[in-house]
Amino acid sequence: MPRARRKEARPGELLAAALDVFAEKGFAATRVDEVAARAGVSKGTLFLYFSSKEELFKAVVRENLSGRFVEWDQELEQFQGSTAELLRYCFETWWERIGSTQASALGRLMLCEANNFPELAQFYRQEVIEPGHALVRRVLQRGMQRGEFRLLELEHAVYLVLAPLMFLMLARPTMGLCIPCPDSFDAGRYIALQADNVLQGLLVRPA
């Protein structure tokens, strides 16, 4: 049953409704009046907060992804364990906070529609991709500086960490449809296995 129409809605409710619609339909096919209806308000009310669909999308990205990098940077700084433990923690928390949530649809959306919306693609690169790469580089540098990881070419090594996460982000919605998937597939176990696999290549071996 659709929500009863209201005169006002908090911006957070509008952003939650927008995330759901963007995740379901992508950017191009999303209509602002549909987002407003999902939030139970008029299109005019939505435009009081967000001047366009592009600005609405940017706000959704900041709410769910780029606005969290300060928190993640602080967690990295305060982490007390080994860098191997830190990397496992990064894999697990990415899945818990992003990969298993609606927010993961934003990355899929941009990969599919970037060529059609270059301005939004540039925004996403600056707000999400570049800070995300910088965070991974800091983890790898930590391991190298502490003598835990072998010396790496950082610009390429970043993708060793990101590739298995990107696969899961892209493949999960179609598993069992166009991508064969056993009934026993467990994303958490996949994440743990990939962390083990990446660390096998990163860790310094005893002489």
Walkthrough of the structure:
The structure is a single chain. The chain is mainly alpha-helical. The protein has 2 domains: 11-60, Homeodomain-like (Arc Repressor Mutant, subunit A, Orthogonal Bundle), CATH 1.10.10.60; 65-202, Tetracycline Repressor, domain 2 (Orthogonal Bundle), CATH 1.10.357. The protein contains 10 helices and no strands. α5 runs parallel beside α8 (118-145). The longest helix has 28 residues, at 118-145. The relative contact order is 0.11. It holds the Pfam family TetR_N. Residues 8-68 form the HTH tetR-type domain. This is Transcriptional regulator, TetR family.
Strand residue content: under 5%
Distance between the termini: 66 Å
Average pLDDT, all residues: 91
CATH fold label of the largest domain: Tetracycline Repressor, domain 2
Q: What shape does the CA trace take?
A: globular
The main pleated sheet reads as:
none
Model regions low in confidence, pLDDT < 50 over at least 5 residues: 1-7
Structural class: mainly alpha
> Which CATH-level-2 architecture of the largest domain?
Orthogonal Bundle
The helix content is over 70%
N-to-C series of helices and strands: HHHHHHHHHH
The CATH superfamily of the largest domain is known as Tetracycline Repressor, domain 2
User: How many individual helices?
Assistant: 10
CATH class bucket of the largest domain: Mainly Alpha
